[in-house]
Design brief:
The complex is a heterodimer of chains A (161) and B (62).
Chain A lengths: L2 H10 L4 E4 H8 L7 E6 L3 H13 L3 E2 L7 E2 L13 E4 L5 E5 L8 H7 L1 E4 L5 E4 L2 H9 L8 H11 L4
Helix pairs in contact in A: 5-6
Chain B lengths: L2 H16 L2 H17 L8 H16 L1
Classes of the chains: A alpha+beta (161), B mainly alpha (62).
């Protein structure tokens, strides 16, 4: 996994995105084992095109089915338009691209509320706020919630549970 | 929390404080790479990506 390379590719291509999920929690709170980089992108045609280019630069592969799995460089433009989220394999680790996120409705509001951070290697990224991370967890079925993560987020927010 | 739990938390806090952030970040990424190399935990493959995508789409469309 090279999360720096994945985040840098998004930055280099000007993709407007928020780091969400386990990697965002790991970087901002506590080390949890996560095997992918989850990115919530601004869902506009131009941004989706930039994201497609960034994914090509990462050597990403994806397919509508496992049988039709191939490098995204071979797909015609606008392939990111076809569904709300994509789980891709890349040369630098698994990447999930979200056009919408359970529990959150307004990308711009979440982006405004997000935090500009750097990885320890110095790669800049914008991370989903603690409040929105908690909202995502609360929107899940109880069986899918990450209780330890919710506890840490509530503690960081000063919210009693 | 029992004594052992408190000791563990203190020891972990000490290690966190002593760890150079860049080394810590490198070790975390290497740990993920190692976990990825284990057949039971592999995530960066077409089969697992397709499976994970289907699970997340189901959640989104619920």
């Amino acid at each position: 996994m090279n999360a720096d390379r994945i985040l840098a590719a998004m930055n280099e291509h000007g993709v407007r995105c928020l780091l969400i999920g386990g990697m965002n929690f790991l970087l901002r709170h506590a080390p949890v084992l996560t095997c992918d980089v989850d990115l919530w992108i601004e869902d506009t045609p131009d941004n989706r095109r930039r994201c497609e280019e960034a994914l090509v630069s990462l050597g990403a592969t994806w397919g509508p089915t496992e049988a039709d799995w191939r490098p995204v460089a071979e797909r015609p433009a606008r392939w990111l338009d076809r569904q709300p989220l994509f789980a891709l394999a890349t040369e630098h680790g698994a990447v999930d691209i979200f056009r919408s996120v359970t529990g959150l409705t307004d990308w711009s509001a979440s982006f405004a509320d997000g935090a500009d951070e750097h990885t320890a290697a110095g790669t800049p990224y914008r991370g989903l706020s603690d409040r929105d991370m908690l909202r995502c967890q609360e929107a899940l079925d109880a069986s899918e919630r990450k209780v330890d993560r919710m506890r840490a987020l509530r503690k960081a927010l000063g919210v009693l549970s | 929390m029992n004594d052992l739990g408190q000791t563990k938390r203190r020891e972990e806090a000490k290690r966190e404080a002593a760890w150079d952030p860049l080394t810590r970040w490198r070790v975390i990424q290497e740990t993920i790479t190692w976990a990825e190399s284990q057949t039971t935990a592999r995530r960066n493959t077409p089969a697992r990506c397709a499976q994970e995508q289907a699970r997340k789409l189901r959640r989104l469309w619920r």
